Amino acid sequence: MRKVAIAGNWKMYKTQTEALEFLQNFLPTLETTPEDRDIILCAPFTTLASMSKNLHGSRVQVGAQNIHWEDAGAYTGEIAGPMLTEIGVRFVVVGHSERRQYFGETDETVNLRLKAAQKNRLTPILCVGETKAQRDAGETESHLFGQIERGLVGVDQNHLIIAYEPIWAIGTGDTCAADEANRVIGLIRSRLKNPDTTIQYGGSVNPKNVDELMAQPEIDGALVGGASLTAESFSRIVNYQ
Ligand code: PEP
Prior knowledge:
Elements: E1 4-9, H1 16-26, E2 37-42, H2 45-55, E3 60-64, H3 81-85, E4 91-94, H4 97-102, H5 107-119, E5 123-128, H6 132-136, H7 140-151, E6 161-164, H8 178-190, E7 198-202, H9 210-214, E8 221-224, H10 231-238
Parallel strand pairs: 1-2, 1-8, 2-3, 3-4, 4-5, 5-6, 6-7, 7-8
Helix pairs in contact: 1-2, 1-10, 5-7
The structure holds phosphoenolpyruvate (PEP).
């Protein structure tokens, strides 16, 4: 059975104080949220320990935004799996296009990070997506299939979430049409060993478009950047109809 997962990606936003303020406003809105969906907040490292403590006993799970492939070592600025699990982190975003674009992440390092996450019993959220130029050149499918194939070597597809995030739709307000996101996600699914893998759509999801996106048969959830930053809009998204 495919699971639904709605995840917020806070990127490099929110101090610890701001994160806790968010929770105070957000948690009460979940009282009537249907049980069929997992809710995850992928927050900056400095907020993770207090988020985890404050979310204990709630239905919201904590995610990080990066993990190194070694459990410890001389890797200045990186973070290791045991450091995350010790403070109650359960998910981690891997291969976000911003990491690929600004920090030199490749399919090979993405693959190492995915395996490290699973070794540490974290569920990775693997992000894949094409640029506008790739889409215009008719290379969307080949690009995504390459990312999936190289990224998933030796990765357990039973403990994995994939997020299809067309890069041209991230942070632009230019959402991928729901039927097109559905089509591409169906294609990604057809390349997986485990067709029940949760596959999210990400890219300018907001309270206005979430219902239509979530009504698509192939879309199992959303990875949400900007619209996850206020309790009001993220609450509307997790309470999609
Ligand atoms: C993201 O950060 O993964 C994302 C999809 O951002 P936004 O929702 O702001 O487009």
